[in-house]
Predict the 3D structure of the following.
Amino acid sequence: MKRVACRFSCNALPNKRTQRTNATKKIKIDSSMTGQDATAQVNSTPKAADEPNQEIKEVIEFIDKIRTRVATVVVGQDVVVERLLIALFTGGHLLLQGVPGLAKTLLVSVLSKTIDLEFARVQFTIDLLPSDILGSEVLDQKTNEFRVHKGPVFTNLLLADEINRAAPKVQGALLEAMQERKVTIGGENFSLPAPFLVIATQNPVEQAGTFELPEAQLDRFMMLHRLVYPKPEEEKEILRRNAQLGIRVEGKGAVAQTEFDMLSNEPAGSSENLIAAMQAVQQVYVSEAFIEHIVEIVNRTRNHPLLELGCSPRAGISLIKASRARALIRGRHYVVPDDLYALAEDVILHRIRLNYEALADGHTGTSVLQSILREFD
Amino acid sequence: MIRFSFILSLLIISCASGVMTAAPVQVTGANENETAELNTTVGFPLRILQNKIAGSHLIAKPYTDRRVPAMVRIIESFPHGSDFRYDIEFKGFEPGRYNVIDYLQRADDSELASAPLWVNVDPILAADKVRPIPLPQNTSQFRSYYVPILFVSGIVWLAGLLAILFYGRGTLKKASVVIKTTTPAEKMRPLIDAAIAGNLTSAQQAELERILSEFWSAKLNLGHLPADQLRSTLREHPEATKMLEQIDYWLHRPAGEANQPVDINALLKPYQGQATTTASE
């Protein structure tokens, strides 16, 4: 299993040289799974069982615990929870786009408490400064020396609420920290804690007074998930639960309880569980055929007549990482094209840009992406 | 220094413009008793100011002929006892000696018996240059073809516009179609043949997998579904899911995990027949 992890280390796709030098049995078998060899292989006696190994089983149990804990507070939003877990297990950053009131903050809060991670939230506004997020040097009047005051970015889970409301220099400062996972304050470098995950939100409406993230910065986000309203049944359950929240007595007064008060402080797992899950993601098997699927789709975005901007290589890397995490969450130790197609919209759509002709003809990014994913129109 | 230069240049310009302006010659104080003749040149206005003419009010005679040799205009009149003083402008178009009084009449149509007021209009041109020099004939061929050239240019412009509107957009649409003109059967057949023969590369394996999904999409009439929903729908279909599972074992699982070996021949044979039938149709 570790040999496969080495194969995909440094977020790089395997090349021919790597395949040749990695003298692992699995890779040898996989690279020989073409044509005649494939026929010979499938006709030979099977060696291993279908079931995943014990480590992966434990990780799947851990994921189930997280899902159960989240479900006690958040109704529905299974896909968002899955995307959050994917981002957490792969070290990617997630951008959530949705109208207010879809429990974005609640989801991130409950996730951080469930895995016992540090959590910080920054509400982005027009007058926010980079030092408000990263930190700054302050003069200690007792010692007459400057000391570093670390900002909220020094956490495991950072919720950047309404990221498009801040000025580009603030967005740039955060995105740089996301990319390099270190911050420079007063000429001194500080590494960010591990894991470090930024979950940013943006509102698709009310664009006045906002600074839209440019494509280059959107590319830093592994996924952009568009939240949708809950289904009617889910909404009924939300209302039922909300009606039973009651009040909380504080001193001589009382306040109405919210869903945040329902969060249990007892974690469902430890950082060791998280590390195990991250390792397990690295062990998920990626076949040559799957890589071919990704390369084909990425290339189609670059050559499509309706697209001005296609996917960067980072998109392909993100697709593989996210697909491996999704496979693990679904209890598989190998990826299948279903993972790719399920994640394509979240990984690709914010990385492509329609050209003028496409916009004039009324095409949308989603429709063009679907035509790319489908082999025939 | 700069300001001085600026003011000086303004003065020079204003003086030059004063010289250049064709200001009329003004003669003041002429009256009906004076016999001195006034002089001007062809086309150059002569103003006779404060000229007293006895009798009732005078007006300029209306012109009945466009080719009159001179023109008289009363600029303003002033009462002068029982008489009037006049500011008169005279302009001669042909050289000669003119009596300004001939171009005036009483406003009350009574007889005008006043002493003549002679004006000599001298020519500036030489005697044999009484007519303007004719303009040279334009010998350019372009002038004669101007209208046809405009007409042809208009047609070319219109044709270009129509070509952009219709042919250009059509080409764009064709470009997107060109990629996908072949049918699933046409693309599937050689890949299946190669797979059964064991000559499939990993890229072709991936392509075959996509085409097989599309084959089932067409068979189950699921073309309207997004790619991810198509896959999940096929996973729920009793026959399609078997095919997908077999392909998972063949292409996506780590080698040697299949409880039952995947027989590629058996897996792809039905599709080979379908591809041949559909292609021949």
